[in-house]
Amino acid sequence: MLTTLETSSLISRDQYAFYGWISACSWLVWDFIISFDDEIVYIWRWSSLRNWCNVLYIYERYIVLLMMLSMGPIWNGWTFASTTSLTDTWCRGIGIYQSIIALVSILGTDIILVLRVNALYRCYSGACQNILRFLRVAFVAQFLASIVTVSIVTHSRKYSRILVLDDPPSYTCISVEISDLRSGNWIPSILFETMLVLMTLYQSLKHEFPKKQGQLFRLSILVDGLTVYILLLVTSIVCEVAWSRGKEDWIAVFYPWNIAAISFSGSRLILNMRKVSHGKTGSGVELTTIGEIVFHQRTPPDDVESSLTP
């Protein structure tokens, strides 16, 4: 039997979960509305629907948003403390579903970030090729590490519904047992994204991007990369600390915001690159597609005047 304080804490947690979820979804919808005209111009008008960058854009902009809407607030989902549909089986099912959404969402954004770093290091020397091989191996390794961590934690986690109000009877979902490995949920992603931003900074400073002509395109890569990194880092660290220390109120608010940050980052990375590239070329050519984000190295070798290959 729960004490009054414990009951009050769970009720507050569920309220935080609802506010966090509705605010994160509202932010994504607001961003969709204010950027929809740019999306029409720079995503759909000038490129094929079969373009792989468009596939990534649809995934991060629309699929992730739909997953967020479908999962509902953390812990209880769409049941809202219903006495009929909220069962132990429901608690486990919605808990597993909500746990894997962030993992599935970050995949698209990480692919986009890897492509951008790959473009910065595109060359034919042995050293550059080794860097790109390392980048791909690191991407696969961190994603597999995240899958293993989430799988172990999800498998060992035990759920239960518990009565929080007597009249009318209202229940909520809780975790009655969870693996200590949960402390590593966000660590692989944080480390990998830190590596990507350091690689971007190194290549930018090495070739003095801000000092060369055509700096707008290069700076967009650097600024976008740093902005996305900070946004994902902050939400991921808060989720990591909250989850590892059992701060359920925090995770209730910041978990949906972490997913929203992932969706926003992935879609904005593509949209912003399209806008800057279109302005640079001045024509409606095919832009920012996989295999086309290429920075040509001219003579002399240290001159990295860059352009997109249409």
UniProtKB/TrEMBL annotation:
Source domain of life: Eukaryota
Q: What is this protein called?
A: DUF6533 domain-containing protein
Q: Where is the DUF6533 domain?
A: 22-66
Q: Which organism is it from?
A: Sistotremastrum suecicum HHB10207 ss-3
Keyword Transmembrane belongs to the record = yes
Keyword Transmembrane tagged:
yes
From the record, give the transmembrane residue ranges. Answer: 16-34, 55-75, 95-119, 131-153, 186-205, 217-238, 250-271
Which Pfam families does UniProt cross-reference here?
DUF6533
Alphabetically list the UniProt keywords.
Answer: Membrane, Transmembrane, Transmembrane helix
